[in-house]
Amino acid sequence: MNIIKYPAREEWASIVERPHLDVTELNQTVANVLADIRQRGDEAVKGYELKFDHIDLDELAVSEEEILKAEKLVSAELRQAIKLAHENILKFHESQRFRSKKVETQPGVVCWQKSVAIEKVGLYIPGGTAPLFSTVLMLSTPAKIAGCKEIVLCTPPDRQGSVNPAILMAARVAGVNRIFKIGGVQAIGAMAYGTESVPKVYKIFGPGNQYVMAAKQQVSLHDVAIDMPAGPSEVCVVADDMASAEFVAADLLSQAEHGVDSQVVLITTSHKLIDDVQQEVDRQLDMLPRKDIAQRALENSRIILVRDLKEAMDLSNAYAPEHLVLQTANYEEMAERVVNAGSVFLGQYACESAGDYASGTNHTLPTHGYATAYNGVNLDSYCRKVTFQHLTEEGVRSIGRAVELMAEAEQLDAHKNAMTVRINSLK
Questions:
Q1: Is 20 one of the annotated active-site residues of the chain?
Q2: Is 200:192 a contact under the CB 8 Å cutoff?
Q3: Handedness of CA 327, 333, 339, 344 (dihedral sign)
Q4: Pairing of strands 263-268, 302-305
Q5: Which sign, positive or negative, has the C-alpha torsion 413, 417, 418, 419?
Q6: How large is the C-alpha radius of gyration of the chain?
Q7: Catalytic position from the list 322, 332, 333, 363
Q8: N or C: which end of the chain has fewer CB within 10 A?
């Protein structure tokens, strides 16, 4: 990891900057695939499955028989773990239910909101080097609570045409309606446009590689909403001399193993911790099956020595990390200073993995600095707020003249007249 000591604030912008990739060619490739899927539907999707996932599929949908078979392949212990995680995610997201309140803004003028579920949502679950069945729980549980009528899930099959059993198990536990064996750009296109097999959805959720992210952003311009823009996964650990080097190193590596483009950052006030963490990273790295991936991610990562914890939090807020771990003696005080972060983990025992799997919070979070403006997935992500207003005769008297004056000032005479005829009807 690259070590930076006492950087001046003028250097912070370059320190927190993520790596930039030239995606011109990538975007054109994605656009071509999406256009083909829009035109040829299932035929195109199956062609890309053969090309990219190396499987010739007769049917895109996962059958009930496949789901039942998969459930038997998941160990009893893992089934219990999935159910525990689901219960906690359910409990936390249930607490986010919207409670409407009617407000009388003027005599006779009552306004309120109603939360309405998005009827059709699409969930993308990557397969690749790590089948993310935990993400199935994170995305489908709040969709079910919200009351989405159709929950469609796409995930890539293996070379035998099967979906990872734990993904199917999690989907059944969390209430997914329909599952399709489709990965990558073709999955996003199928859900955005609809095909003979895959229904068109109104909003797409879920992580993926740079091709999936580019596809989501492209379809969001005209065809469908998406959860958030996103990039590679990342973690920032803020630690003082009370922190455990073993724990800090473990947190850094847990994120580094996601992918070679992941980024991890340690911001600390302690000289000693830097040396200790480096030794721990080397020791723990040797034990990881995904050592090569984590090692390459560490090459893009940084340890930053700062003067005090106030400066540490200022730098963290400038970085706006997806995951923020506060391993300081005064973590509660530090938590009050958090402005930009996707999800925050407080104290030495709150490892980032807890939120990834089973604490109950959602792990679908803004990356690449988007935490300055976006939050992670929550219950509201699956809902729209529809506003209502009711005016009585008294309401017309209360605000009618103001409406007339404002419409007239904007030279919108038909707007003015819509209120004028009502005022006149009261005379």
A1: no
A2: yes
A3: positive
A4: parallel
A5: positive
A6: 25
A7: 322
A8: C
Residue type, 302: R
Cβ distance 346 to 59 under 8 Å? no
What is the average per-residue pLDDT within 29-57? 97
Which amino acid is located at 372 in the chain?
A: T
23 vs 213, which has greater pLDDT? 213
* Active-site residue identified among 86, 93, 258, 323: 323
Mean predicted confidence (pLDDT) in 219-244: 94
CB atoms within 10 A of CB 166: 22
**Catalytic site includes residue 94:** no
Give how far Cα 92 sits from Cα of 4, 40, 345, Å. Answer: 39, 42, 16
CB hemisphere CA count around 4 (13 angstroms): 19
**Residues 426 and 397: beta-carbon distance below 8 Å:** yes
> Using one digit for the tens of pLDDT, what is the confidence trace for 11-36?
999 999 887 777 889 999 999 999 99
* Cβ–Cβ under 8 Å, residues 146 and 382: yes
Summarize pLDDT for 128-186 with one digit per residue, the tens. 667 899 999 999 999 999 999 999 999 999 999 999 999 999 999 999 989 999 999 99
Classify residue 426 by burial, with Cβ atoms within 10 Å: 0-12, 13-18, 19+: exposed
Q: List the beta bridge partners of residue 384.
A: 116
The pTM score is: 0.94
Q: Which two tokens stand for residue 96?
A: 């986010």
SS3 per-residue string spanning 96-108: CCCCCCCEEEECC
